[in-house]
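Section 3.1 - Work completed
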Amino acid sequence: MNLIELIISGKLNEAKQHSINRLAKIVEKRLEEAKRYVEADMFEFVEEHLDEKRNPNLIKMGRITRIRRRIRRTAKGKIVVQKNRRRSGIKGYRISGNTVKRISAVERLRKSRLLKRSWKTTRRAKLRRSLLKRKMSMRRRASIGLK
């Protein structure tokens, strides 16, 4: 007998018991669905937590790495946020146009000679200054909300 028939026939106690049982079944069914959703949410939370270890500012796309946001200072001292810079994801390669090309041996040698010459004259204070600037930049990035 369904609820309406019980009410019409005047069996109100049975109708009440029937409705309580029906509500208990509905609650149990919804609780099972809610448990499934909670389990799914917990699994996604763990997955997101693992992704936090990876730097969200760097997006690797094959041989190209896209840097989403960087903080730079212009020659006049103004702070600028650069967005979506494309860099080669492979050491020894550069981006030329829309392709990744190998840096030639001559270019590498020239760069290394220039670097040796500049590092010969660079003192410890200059290195310390650059490290201090990097620390300040990272602090600034953290205050903006970048990693």
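Second construct:
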Amino acid sequence: MEKVAFNIFKNESEYENAPPYRNNEFVPEEDFVFKAGVPYEISLFKNKSEKTGTQYLRVSAKVNEWAIENKDIYSHLKDEINSVKEQEVDRKDLPNDDIEF
């Protein structure tokens, strides 16, 4: 997989625990696999259909070629980055605010 992108739409569900956005009709055109140890760039875009005016989110994932090409230059930062990620996960006071779209 070099790149995969898909749309998710506002979920107008009456259930409190339902996901706020979803796409229950996503059919990939080809297989895609996230490979362990490969850096990816994950993006979330807010879009609006020109035809219908429907707002939706587009999720995109692609291999981060720049990170692969420059991994030797920044390899010394790996331990620092992992340490910061561990600290972020350990935080108990994570904000629980709604994301405005």
